[in-house]
Amino acid sequence: MTRGTIRAWYLVHKWTSLICTLFLLMLCLTGLPLIFHDEIDAVSGEPDQSAVAGAPSSSDGPGLKSLDAMLAKVLATKPGDVPVFMAFDNETPLMTITTAPRPDSKGAEMTIHVLNRATGETTGQETEEGLMHFLLQLHTDMFLGLPGMLFLGLMGLLFVIALVSGTVLYAPFMRKLDFGTLRVSRSKRLRQIDYHNLLGIVALAWMTVVGLTGVINAAATPLRQMWQMGELAEMTQTYKGQPPLPPSRYGSIDKAMAEVRKARPGNNPQFIAFPGGAFSSRHHYAVFLQGTSKLTEHVLTPALVDAEKGVLTDIRQMPWYMVALSYSQPLHFGDYGALPLKILWAILDLFTLYVLWTGIQLWFGKRRTSADAHVREVESGGLVVPAE
Amino acid sequence: MTTKSKTRARSLRTVFAVPLVMGVLSLIGLMSALAGDGLADRLSWAALAMPVLAVAWAMRRRRR
Predict the structure, then answer these.
(1) I want to staple A58 with a disulfide (CB 3.0 to 4.6 A). Which of A51, A88, A148, A348 is the partner?
(2) What is the mean pLDDT of residues A109-123?
(3) For the whole model, what pTM was predicted?
């Protein structure tokens, strides 16, 4: 590698890292407790949901109350509201029904009601408060909505470029060193640089996957809008130009669900989106079916049912970019392989934090020296320390 | 100059041999838990633990 090439990659590494590091530090710090949010919720007094007896609410198992009855129960306590979402669980009979003043209300105006489909009782409302929710919001969009999400996505992209350029610089740096060399007793700078390189290179694949899936998750809103305006509009083409269906004319959800189950026996819904919202047309119940195996359960397939008449309009596979979004969620959260996977996720997150931290220190310590001096440091495996 | 820096320069293949193994193991770890439960989960834990164990090994054997 020529000196000019090293210099170019060094500058890419320096600047992409400098711009994204503060935000990445925030993401790693808030992400760490979020990995364990189920476990933390369980010990911090949230009702223990796993102990609720009965068939899963996503199934059509025996003893479950009808969806129409559950909805009527919620609407009676919230007069004037209309239904927006219904979401189901694969382990317990618990489900949620989201209502809002209008079908296209903003998230802040929505109320999420938690119900038990086995007993038919309302068990409470999901609150958007508490530390975990605060951390999640900070991690997702820094309380800035869509612009915040897209901004963090951009930071993720810079992080991935920093990973690539760091890997390129690893080659000339390690030319005369064995893998894993940690020179801890010579100078603080040499120790930091060796740890920065070792932790960075062993966690490289994990950091790249979590970084890229984070970028895809940050683009969830535009991706969903692209699907809604493209595929979904095509699926419901015959309804184009019709006035929106008023909530007073919504038909039976149980009938709609029965139609879907007839067409796709064995598939359970993850959630149902009501007409006029962000996940459906203005005339349909959009039933999002889960796959039947562990590999496909994350990939949802929309079934669109005429919300007034209860007849099936279309079922179609999601386009590739929505499939990518579906897999990006577990691959970013690390919640798909039980507690040991979460613990490994946390350790690799700590590795990333240390790489970011040593990166800041390495930059700050020699921030006034020339790029050429830094190139010589890389070329010599850290032995030629840049002069002040 | 120390004796270490006089040693012969390593090829790209040598420099990236262990990192490549770590990367492949990480990807196997990330994917296998997606594909199934039980055995697939255990494979995932074992594979993804390798990068962590590599650091522990380096801290014991490669500190100088």
Answers:
(1) A88
(2) 92
(3) 0.91
Chain A contacts of B53, Cβ < 8 Å? none
Given CB atoms, is B12 within the 8 Å cutoff of chain A? yes
Instruction: Note whether residue A88 is domain-resident.
Output: yes
Q: Which residues of B touch A337 (CB under 8 A)?
A: 33, 41, 44-45
B33 to chain A: nearest residue by CA?
A: A337
SS (H, E, C) A191-209: HHHHHHHHHHHHCHHHHHH
Determine, yes or no, domain membership for A46.
no
Query: In terms of CA atoms, which chain A residue is nearest residue B62?
Result: A181
Number of folded domains in chain A?
2
**Does a structural domain hold residue A139?**
no
pLDDT digits (tens, 9 = 90+) for A305-332: 999 999 999 999 999 999 999 999 999 9
